Amino acid sequence: MPHAGGSAGVFRPWQRSFPGDIEVIPLEPAGRGVRRGEEFATELPAAAADLSTTLLDRLEGDDFVILGHCMGALLAYEMVCHLERHMLKTPRMLIVSGRNPPHLQTAWGKRVAGLPDDELFAELSSVGGVPKGLSRAMAEGFLHIIRNDQRMVHGYTPSQPVHRIATPVHVLAGREDEMTQSDQLPGWSDYTTGTVEVEYLAGGHYFLYDWPEHVASRVTGSTAPGVATV
After folding, report:
1. Quick one: DSSP state of residue 127?
2. Bridge-based pairing state of the strands 65-69 and 227-229
3. What pTM was estimated for this model as a whole?
4. Is 229 a residue whose pLDDT tops 50?
5. How far apart are alpha carbons 62 and 41 in whole angstroms?
6. Sequence-ordered list of residues with C-beta below 8 angstroms from that of 131, at least 6 positions apart, any chain
7. What CA–CA distance (Å, rounded) separates 99 from 158?
8. Sheet holding 65-69, edge to edge
9. pLDDT above 90 covers what percent of the chain?
10. Long-range contacts (CB closer than 8 Å, 24 or more residues apart) made by 37-43
11. 3 state DSSP class of 97
């Protein structure tokens, strides 16, 4: 699942970095990409339920991993909650990237949410959140998507009591990402009864998209340095 304002397209090149026996399935939230003619979701759990249905329709076996970046991390967590509550197939691992635990809002996101379009575009550009080659003059559709995603994320709070999934969680964070805090990331352990690993990789907030080979090693169970287990 992609970040706020993102589409499934950010993950389509990843298949080249994965072994041939592993299929990368980019999931598209409504309102963008191949689903641009559909209404946006207004609540994150509903969006997660919708994506869970799409995922199960695509699966050919029981062994799978769910990954999401930033907003996608919240969607991924809520997808596992949905699958567990409905006693459906669940992943063997959840990978959450570029996101503090679900109960914590991103200070940057709250700060920029009310900015005029020009200022929001400039802020997004400064953190690498604008698609390559997209000018301000061409960005109306993109800004419409990201504002809807921001409203959905800012309106989200985890269920109470918290649903602690049974799936182990692997947390990926960018060493230069100011939208996550190293002292908060272990808090993902409050959302699972499984193990939690926190791993840091080089890069800012959108670091994940530079590391498909490393993610592939994680999915296949290969070892990698720099992991702290909580």
Report:
1. T
2. unpaired
3. 0.94
4. no
5. 28
6. 142
7. 14
8. 65-69, 93-97, 169-174, 196-201, 227-229
9. 88
10. 40/145, 40/148, 40/152, 41/152, 42/151, 42/152, 42/155, 43/152, 43/155, 43/156
11. strand
For residue 163, give the amino acid letter.
H
Residue with tokens 């959840």: 94
| Distances from the Cα of 198 to the Cα of 66, 73, 98, 172, angstroms | 16, 14, 11, 6
Buried b / exposed e over 87-97, threshold 16 CB at 10 Å, is eeebbebbbbb
Q: What is the amino acid identity at position 2?
A: P
Query: What is the three-class DSSP state of 147?
Result: helix
Q: What is the pLDDT of residues 13-52, one digit of tens each?
A: 999 999 999 999 999 999 999 999 999 999 999 999 999 9
Cα dist from 107 to 68, 76, 112, 181, 205, whole Å? 19, 21, 9, 11, 13
Rounded CA-CA distance 138/13 in Å is 24
State both tokens at 113: 């949410």
Tokens for 74? 């919240």
CA–CA separation, 96 vs 173, rounded Å? 9
